Each structure stands twice: as C-alpha cells, then as structure tokens.
Amino acid sequence: MQLHVARLCMDCEEVHDAQTCPVCGSETFAFMSRWVPAPERRQRPRPVEPAPSETVNTYRELLSPARPSAGASRWLRRGAIGAAAIAAVGWAWQRQTAAGSPSQKSADSRETERVKEPV
C-alpha cells in the first residue's frame, strides 16, 4: 500500500485504502500522509510538453482585445441606442404637447367661455 493512498480509520484505527473501513465499515478516516511526510515519488519532474501551436493561436484569437465585436453584441448596442433615442423624442413630444402652444390655449379658453354663456 502506498503512503499517498493509506487511510487511518478514526473509529477502529485500522489502516486501509478503501472508501470505507474493511473492519468496521466506517467512512470516517484521515490520510496517513497528514502525519507522515511522503517524499516525492518521481526522481525527476515530468518534462513540460509544449502546447500545439494551433491551440495556442486559437486561445490568442479568443483573448485578444483587438478582435471585432460579435454581431449579437453590436446589434444589442445599436438597439439600446435606438431605444434611448426613441424615448428622448417621446419625452420631448410629450413635453411639447403638455405645455401647448399659445394659440391652442386661447382656442381652449374661448370654447370654455361659450359653454359658460348659455348656462
């Protein structure tokens, strides 16, 4: 049994390498390497393998900030600007009709005077 996988059962103190203790069936354990330092198994580290250039280029293309914006985000941005422009025009139109022009106010006042006279 390797020290890296050796487990100590916390209930019956049995050393095992399974998920449950083979003696008492408990799942409460601690790895032995917690108390006993385990030396590195390899005599020399693994050689670093260079990544394939195609994969590297793909990641560079995805992460580069100079890439053109995607079509969906461009349309979303244009739609937001268009909605803001329509809202501004609507707001201006509403303000104009609420304030009314002076000729419209005088026409309204004449009409209310006519209604008052017959009564």
Cα end-to-end separation: 111 Å
What overall form do the CA principal axes indicate? elongated
Which percent bin holds the helix content? 40-55%
* Cα radius of gyration in angstroms: 40 Å
Class derived from helix and strand content: mainly alpha
- Content of β-strand: 5-15%
Put simply, the count of helices is: 3
The neighbouring-strand order within the major sheet is: 2-1-3
* Uncertain regions spanning at least 5 consecutive residues: none
Element pattern in H and E: EEEHHH
- Compute the number of strand runs: 3
Overall mean confidence score, pLDDT:
79
Largest sheet: 3 strands, antiparallel
Write the layout of secondary structure elements.
Blueprint: E1 7-9, E2 15-16, E3 29-31, H1 53-63, H2 71-99, H3 102-116
Antiparallel strand pairs: 1-2, 1-3
Q: Tags for this entry?
A:
three-stranded antiparallel sheet, 3 helices, mainly alpha, 119 residues
Quickly describe the structure:
The protein is mostly helical and about 120 residues long. About 45% of the residues lie in helices and about 5% in strands.
